[in-house]
What does this fold into?
Amino acid sequence: MNTKIATILLLASATTLAACAKKAPEQLPPPPPATVQPTPQPTPQVQPTGPQVGSQDHFAAAVGSATTIYFDTDRYNVDSQDAAALQAQAQYFARYPQISFTIQGHADERGTREYNLALGERRANAAKNFLVSLGVDPGRIAVVSYGKERPVALGSNEGAWAQNRRAASVIIT
Amino acid sequence: MTKTYLLFLTAALIAAPAAAQGAQDLGAPVGEDGPVETIAVEGDDADGPLRGTVTDESAWSDIGIAIPAFATDRDRPTPANADGTEALGREVARVITANLRNNGLFKPVGPDSLPQPAFPQITAPAFGNWSGRGAEMLVHGYVRARDDGRLVVGCYLYDVALQNELVREGWVVGPADWRRAAHKCSDLIFARLTGESPFFDSRIAYIAETGPKDRRVKRLAVMDSDGANHRFLTLGSATALTPRYSPDYSKILYLSYVDGNPRIYVYDIGSGKQTLVTENRNPTIAPRWSPDGQSILYSMAVAGNTDIYRVPATGGQSVRLTNNPGIDVGGSYSPDGRKIVFESDRSGSQQCYVMDADGSNQKRISFFGGRCATPEWSPRGDQIAFTRIAGDFNVAVMNTSGGSIRVLTRGWQDEAPTWAPNGRIIQFFRTEKNTGRSGIWQVDLTGQNERRLPTPVDASDPAWGPIRP
It folds into this structure.
């Protein structure tokens, strides 16, 4: 299982490097200790330190930057890079079936407010539908759109906008 | 005072069970204002000759209008002004001067640089003195405190050259509403000199914004058309967006995240309470009133796809008006209530469409090459204002078939136009590049007179209400 995740992550990061400029220059999170450790941990509950199962930190540690997928301007389709990230998410959620989560859909600032609310809704649902197709129970997935109201990148340039056109999976604690 | 306290207490008692049910973000209710009664005021004869309507605005911008302090029969104390009715008369003239100056059509001279007429001169002006000052038009008025505490405000417009009274009117207002009398007088002057409909005595609902770009606090707020009488209606713990005043000013539709999801609420101004526009688990956005206030349009996303619905304002069954895999959102009624202009990306990008009020005959009207967003039908019916996206975001107007486009603003991101009640002026919000700071601006239909509205904090999503009764 861990090797699989690691492979997908490797593939995902390779695709990130190769991705064209439209994609978000993702801010790399701290290195995921759970997966880069060569020693497998079949019983994570005996781990003395590290994030708890059911926390966003644990999810992020497990899937890395794959907690969030990114979209082209005004688009909501799941491309191959997004698919790899959602597969990593699906494996995590298969492993921890007790976890529920929210997919937050967002848009960049270069759109009108109401349209962006609808667009964020569409993006979050695209991510949800993909996860459901991978076997995640739709009852575990909540969806909310924030339109352009909650940017993560604060500049007014293509790079910042690419980071803000996103659907982020957030663990419900 | 006792009355206010009782009202507050009642509201608190009513609010208590509601608060127990779920999250709340509402401030104390501001309540509705008192009535304004129009009365006959003294004058020497009937209305003078009408001077004709404005066709060329440039001809009017040079008109000298003298607006000296309003007189008072007797300087009396009033809750409206700590220095009494004489000082209040000066304030009234200042408000009128600012109104007429800020909207670009006239060059008024206010009370601070003019002699103060005596009370008897209000109905018998010293025309010789005023023509010597180069004034073509003269505004006179008075403020009188009645024994019951209410104020009588008289307003007179004279043609100095003809030595003629053009129009006069009077109002009885509560002391708290004295500015409304100044706005009514501004409207009287504006309407008489331009032949246009009034608009000063109106209010604006909007979103007040504070905080950094990634943690912006967005609160529902209201103000008079000149920015006075500002009030926050929500506390800011939940994001509020896109308000719309009901045609009778008794309610405000707006979007709130108070339960964690974007949903439209109907906020009752008198009681300070709010209800969901529709009991539904789906997110609802983009609320709009029909011109008669009987119906509400909203947009709802079901499984990610947004369409436009209509529901009676009193609640009940919703009717789906659009049924399309694209995003259909917003909607603005023609003033006769028979058509709706809305935006849809069913063609691949945001464009403006017109349909009949029952959802039939949906037809795209925008074909200018860019994108068409947030269309708003003019209260006069002949034009549609919209956000024109072609590189930058600008406010533009077009006719109801999508032709004769005129771009009115040139900001980096100007969006969400709203019409003044007379269809002559448009407000919108302008967002700054990088900082994300926003402000409400207004521009007239010539595109010449653009200015920023004074708001206590950053502002967005202006929604101009109709002229007040």
Q: What stands out?
A: Chain B has two domains: 37-194, 203-464. Chain B touches chain A through 42 residues (CB under 8 Å).
